[in-house]
Amino acid sequence: ALQSIFQSLEDVQSARDAYNECLTTTTMGNMEMKAKQSPLLCLFDSLGIRTPTRTSAKVQIQGLDQLVTYLESQNVEKALFSDKATDFESLDQWYVPGNGV
């Protein structure tokens, strides 16, 4: 389960980057832009997050890059997802109740 959460954070980061890339390129056709933006828009829709109303505005997810970088620098993926037991009791340190992820 924790490995899935870590991978999901990276997937959101990748979808956000693909969405924002469409805003800075002039060589991409309309169909290709929609295809690259669709994963993030579908994710937002499934989570009940309002999609961007201005099509020219970059999507920013405060703290996402820092969280992923920190987890990678701490080798968290290897530590959390090794064959050994996972400490579920420390989850509240990673995901503080009331704070967005």
SS class: mainly alpha
Low-confidence stretches: none
Order of helices and strands: HHHHH
Largest sheet: none
Question: What is the tally of beta strands?
Answer: 0
Distance N to C terminus: 16 Å
Radius of gyration: 16 Å
Count up the helices. 5
Overall morphology: elongated
Percentage of residues in DSSP E strands: under 5%
* Residue share in helix: 55-70%
Give the mean pLDDT. 80
Write the layout of secondary structure elements.
Blueprint (H helix, E strand, L loop, with lengths): L1 H23 L5 H18 L16 H10 L2 H5 L10 H4 L7
Helix pairs in contact: 1-2, 1-3
Protein model, in words:
With 101 residues, the protein is mostly helical. It has 5 helices and no strands. It has helices at residues 2-24, 30-47, 64-73, 76-80, 91-94. The longest helix has 23 residues, at 2-24. The radius of gyration is 16 Å and the shape is elongated. The protein starts with a helix and ends in a 7-residue tail after the last helix.
Short recap of the structure:
This protein has 101 residues and is mainly alpha-helical. The protein has helices spanning 2-24, 30-47, 64-73, 76-80, 91-94.
Keywords summarizing the entry:
single chain; 101 residues; mainly alpha; 59% helix; elongated
